[in-house]
Fold:
Amino acid sequence: MKKLLFLILIIISVYGCEKDDQVSYSSSLIGEWSWFISSGGIVGVVIPDGVNTVNLLFTPDSLLYTYRNDTIYSYNTFHTYKKVEDNGLDTIDVISIGSVIQKYFIFQDTLVLEHINAPMGSGYVRIKQVHFP
Structure:
């Protein structure tokens, strides 16, 4: 479990240091993502139990479906935009899902969603085969 947390911290660190053209746009979100870790908050680190699955499906028409064990659990609209950080120098990619606003980044086939003002986030790995409902 410590190795997974360490991996997420490395990915976050690498993203924070990148200043080249690896910018994520909303089209890079399109597809299906499988949850593999969450960290932060009161519970610390949570990883899938091997029995239950959570997948996110971002569609081209700005809908987000959340699946639990292959059944639609919820759906909502989403949109992405860039936001200037509080330091006034850096910009971040932000996703608005309903009334929830998070920053996000994509590094290779990994999506990380983080709360903007809290040290909490979740990691997802891209699923190659995409099924639209």
Notes: Residues 2-127 form a domain with the Lipocalin fold (CATH 2.40.128). The two ends are 33 Å apart (CA to CA). Residues 19 and 90 are 10 Å apart (CA to CA). Residues 1-7, 13-25 have pLDDT under 50 and may be disordered.
